[in-house]
C-alpha cells in the first residue's frame, strides 16, 4: 500500500478556559490518500471541525493546546514544523473551504481580488496573469459569465455561487488535499447537490485527497469512499461507506442511521437519539456514549472501549462491536 | 452614485438654511440693546445708531433681516463689525490657520490612535494594552485646556525646555504640532479605543480565519484583511471629527495664543459682534456639513456592501 497523503495519529487537543479544561479531541486517528474522499461524520461539538483546524494549523492557541499526537502530511509531521513552514503548506498543500461562504469571504474585497491574492503573493504572478487565472478558476467551478463576475463582491453572489467562488479560491494553488468543513450546510437542498457534485468532479479530475466534514448522512452516501464517525472527540467507528450503511459497527452510528427519515416508515414517529452529547469538560467515565446508548451494560460505565478491528480496515470503539455488526 | 451625491448636496440646502437661521436668530434676538457698551461709557449717538441699524437692517422683521444677510453672504460679503472692520477679511486671515491646525490634529489623532488601537487590539491584556487603556482614560478625563496648559508649560522654556511652545502670528506647521496634539488628544483617545474594539471584534471573524487558512503572510492578514474592515467605523469618526475640531479649536487657540477662528469667535461673543459670530459659525456649519457628506461618500467606497442608489 502506498503511503497515505495525510495521517492523523492519536491527536489530543484540549481547550484551557477559565471554566476548566475541555478535552475536545481524545485520540483522533484517520488517514486520507490521494484521490480518496474521507467523510468525517458527527454531531456539533464532536470535534470534527477542531480536527480539521488542527490539521490546517489555524486553531487559536491558546486557548487550544495540542497535548499529544502527530499529523503527517506526505510523511512529514506538521506539528514539528515552524510556523512559517506550516504557512507554506496552507493553501499549497492543504486547502480548506468553510461552511458559510458569505462570512468566510472578505466582504470588502472582490471575489477576483481574493483569488488573485493567492496567485500574486504565493506564486509571484503578475496582476494580469493572476486575473486570467482567476477567471479560469471561476470558470472551472462553473460560475456563469466568470469574466464579468470576477470583479463582483461576495454579497453580489448567490449562496451557491459564493461557495463555488470559495472552492475556486481554495484550488488556486493546486492543493493535494482539500478539507471541506460542512460546505453545504448553509445552502438549500438543490444547491447542496450541485456543490457536492462539483466537489466530487474536481476531486476526481485533480486526483486530490478530500476530507469532507459533515453531519449530513445523505451527503456522505453520495461522495465518500470511507467514513469516520466522531463522538466526544474520538473516532468511534471507521468503515467503508458501503459497509457502514449496510451494517453499522457502533451503536452510535446505528442510532444515527435509525434517526434518518424513511419513506417506508411514513406516519410513524421519527426515531431520535435520547439525551445530549456529553459536556467536554466533564466526559462520563467509560464509553462516552454510554448514557445515551440503547445497548449499554455495566462494563460501558467503567471501561473505555478499545479499538476493535472488524476486518477490511473497519474499526469500532465498542465493547460489543462484533455483535453490533453481526446484527446489522 | 451620481444621483446620491446630487441628492445629498440638495439636502445640504435646507440644513444650511435651518442652522444659519437659528444662529442668526439666536445672536440677534438677545434681549439686550445691541448698541449698549459700543460707544465707550456714553450711550451711542442717535445718528450712529440710525446708520448702523440701517446697515444691519435691524429695523426689519427678523426673517427679512436674515434673508438680506444671507443674500449678502452669497455674494461673498460677510458684512462689517460695529467698528467698520470687514468680517470677511478677518476670517480669511484666521481661517487658514485654524484649518491647518484642524488637519494637523486629525492626522496626529489618526496616526497615533490607529497604531495604538491596532497594537492593543492584537495583543489584548498585555502591558501595552493596559498602558494605552489607562493613558486614554487619563486623556479623556482631562479637559483640553488642562492638557494644553500643562504641555505648554512643561515642554516650553519655563519647564524642561524641550521645545519652543510659542506660536507666531503666521504659524508654520512645526509650530502647530504641539497645539494640534492637544486639540486632537481627546479624539485620539477615542480613536485608539474604537480601533481596538473594532480589531478585537474582527480578528476572530471568519474571513480572517480564511485569510490565515489561505496561508497568507501574517502582515497581509492583519494589514489588509483585518485592518481594511476594522477601519470603517474609525474613518467615519475621523471625518465627522474634522468638523468638530475646527469648532473646538477655541480653547486650544486660546491656550497657545493662536490667531485662528477660535480667538475671533471668542472676541465676537464677548463684544457682542453679531455679524462676526454669525459669519464664523455659518462657515463652521458649512465645514461640518461638507465633512459629513465626505464621510458618507467615503463610507460607500470603504464598504462595498453600502451602495447609494
UniProtKB/TrEMBL annotation, chain A:
The keyword Phosphoprotein does not apply. It comes from the Bacteria. Pfam families: ABC_tran, oligo_HPY. It is a peripheral membrane protein. InterPro entries: AAA+_ATPase (IPR003593), ABC_Ni/Peptide_Import (IPR050388), ABC_transporter-like_ATP-bd (IPR003439), ABC_transporter-like_CS (IPR017871), Oligopep_ABC_C (IPR013563), P-loop_NTPase (IPR027417). It is found in: Cell membrane. Coiled coil: none annotated. PROSITE patterns: ABC_TRANSPORTER_1, ABC_TRANSPORTER_2. GO terms for molecular function: ATP binding. Keywords: ATP-binding, Cell membrane, Membrane, Nucleotide-binding, Transport. Residues 6-257 form the ABC transporter domain. Belongs to the ABC transporter superfamily. This is ABC transporter ATP-binding protein. It comes from Lentzea flava.
From TrEMBL, chain B:
The chain crosses the membrane at residues 12-30, 97-119, 131-156, 176-195, 275-302. Coiled coil: none annotated. It comes from Lentzea flava. It comes from the Bacteria. Belongs to the binding-protein-dependent transport system permease family. SUPFAM superfamilies: MetI-like (SSF161098). This is ABC transporter permease. InterPro entries: BPD_transp_1_N, MetI-like, MetI-like_sf. Residues 95-299 form the ABC transmembrane type-1 domain. Its main location: membrane. It is found in: Cell membrane. It is a multi-pass membrane protein. Keywords: Cell membrane, Membrane, Transmembrane, Transmembrane helix, Transport.
Amino acid at each position: 500500500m502506498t503511503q497515505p497523503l495525510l495521517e492523523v495519529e492519536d491527536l489530543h487537543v484540549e481547550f484551557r478556559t477559565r471554566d476548566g479544561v475541555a478535552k475536545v479531541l481524545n485520540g483522533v486517528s484517520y488517514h486520507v490518500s490521494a484521490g480518496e474522499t474521507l467523510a468525517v461524520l458527527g454531531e456539533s461539538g464532536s470535534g470534527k471541525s477542531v480536527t480539521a483546524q488542527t490539521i490546517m494549523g489555524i486553531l487559536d492557541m491558546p486557548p487550544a493546546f495540542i497535548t499529544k499526537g502527530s499529523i503527517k502530511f506526505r510523511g512529514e509531521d506538521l506539528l514539528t514544523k515552524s510556523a512559517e513552514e506550516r504557512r507554506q503548506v496552507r493553501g499549497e498543500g492543504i486547502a480548506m473551504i468553510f461552511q458559510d461562504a458569505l462570512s468566510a469571504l472578505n466582504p470588502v474585497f472582490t471575489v477576483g481580488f481574493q483569488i488573485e491574492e493567492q496567485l500574486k503573493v504565493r506564486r509571484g504572478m503578475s496582476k494580469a496573469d493572476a486575473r486570467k487565472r482567476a477567471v479560469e478558476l471561476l470558470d472551472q467551478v462553473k460560475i456563469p459569465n466568470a469574466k464579468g463576475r470576477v470583479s463582483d463582491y461576495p454579497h453580489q453572489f448567490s449562496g451557491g455561487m459564493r461557495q463555488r467562488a470559495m472552492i475556486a479560491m481554495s484550488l488556486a494553488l493546486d492543493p493535494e488535499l482539500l478539507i471541506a468543513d460542512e460546505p453545504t450546510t448553509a445552502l438549500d437542498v438543490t444547491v447542496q447537490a450541485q456543490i457536492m457534485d462539483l466537489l466530487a468532479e474536481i476531486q476526481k479530475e485533480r486526483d486530490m485527497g478530500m476530507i469532507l466534514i459533515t453531519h449530513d448522512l445523505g451527503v456522505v452516501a453520495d461522495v465518500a469512499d470511507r467514513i469516520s464517525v466522531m463522538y466526544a472527540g474520538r473516532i468511534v467507528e471507521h468503515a467503508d461507506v458501503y459497509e457502514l450503511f449496510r451494517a453499522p459497527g457502533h451503536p452510535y452510528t446505528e442510532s444515527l442511521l435509525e434517526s434518518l427519515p424513511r419513506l417506508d416508515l411514513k406516519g410513524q414517529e421519527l426515531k431520535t437519539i435520547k439525551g445530549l452529547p456529553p459536556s467536554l469538560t466533564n466526559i462520563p467515565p467509560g464509553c462516552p456514549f454510554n448514557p445515551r446508548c440503547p445497548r449499554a451494560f455495566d462494563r460501558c460505565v467503567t471501561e473505555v472501549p478499545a479499538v476493535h478491528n472488524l476486518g477490511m480496515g473497519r474499526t469500532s470503539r465498542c465493547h460489543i462491536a462484533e455483535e453490533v455488526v453481526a446484527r446489522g | 452614485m451620481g444621483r446620491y451625491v446630487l441628492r445629498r448636496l440638495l439636502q445640504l440646502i435646507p440644513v444650511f438654511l435651518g442652522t444659519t437661521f437659528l444662529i442668526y436668530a439666536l445672536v440677534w434676538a438677545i434681549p439686550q440693546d445691541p448698541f449698549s457698551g459700543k460707544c465707550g461709557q456714553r450711550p451711542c449717538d442717535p445718528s450712529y445708531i440710525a446708520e448702523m441699524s440701517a446697515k444691519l437692517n435691524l429695523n426689519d422683521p427678523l426673517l427679512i433681516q436674515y434673508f438680506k444677510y444671507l443674500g449678502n453672504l452669497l455674494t461673498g460679503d460677510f458684512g462689517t463689525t460695529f467698528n467698520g472692520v470687514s468680517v470677511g477679511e478677518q476670517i480669511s486671515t484666521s481661517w487658514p490657520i485654524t484649518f491647518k491646525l484642524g488637519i494637523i490634529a486629525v492626522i496626529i489623532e489618526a496616526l497615533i490612535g490607529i497604531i495604538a488601537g491596532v497594537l492593543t487590539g492584537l495583543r489584548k491584556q498585555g502591558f501595552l494594552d493596559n498602558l494605552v487603556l489607562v493613558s486614554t482614560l487619563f486623556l479623556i478625563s482631562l479637559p483640553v485646556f488642562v492638557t494644553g496648559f500643562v504641555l505648554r508649560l512643561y515642554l516650553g522654556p519655563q519647564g524642561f525646555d524641550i521645545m519652543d511652545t510659542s506660536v507666531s502670528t503666521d504659524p508654520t506647521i512645526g509650530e502647530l504640532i504641539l497645539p494640534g496634539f492637544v486639540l486632537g488628544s481627546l479624539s485620539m483617545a477615542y480613536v485608539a479605543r474604537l480601533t481596538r474594539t473594532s480589531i478585537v471584534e474582527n480578528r476572530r471573524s471568519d474571513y480572517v480565519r480564511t485569510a490565515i487558512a489561505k496561508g497568507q503572510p501574517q502582515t497581509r492578514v492583519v494589514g489588509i484583511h483585518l485592518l481594511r474592515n476594522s477601519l470603517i467605523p474609525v474613518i467615519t469618526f475621523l471625518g465627522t471629527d474634522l468638523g468638530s475640531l475646527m469648532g473646538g479649536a477655541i480653547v486650544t487657540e486660546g491656550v497657545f495664543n493662536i490667531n485662528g477662528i477660535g480667538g475671533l469667535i471668542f472676541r465676537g461673543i464677548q463684544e457682542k459682534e453679531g455679524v462676526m459670530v454669525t459669519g464664523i459659525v455659518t462657515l463652521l456649519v458649512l465645514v461640518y456639513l461638507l465633512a459629513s457628506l465626505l464621510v458618507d461618500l467615503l463610507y460607500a467606497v470603504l464598504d462595498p456592501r453600502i451602495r447609494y442608489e
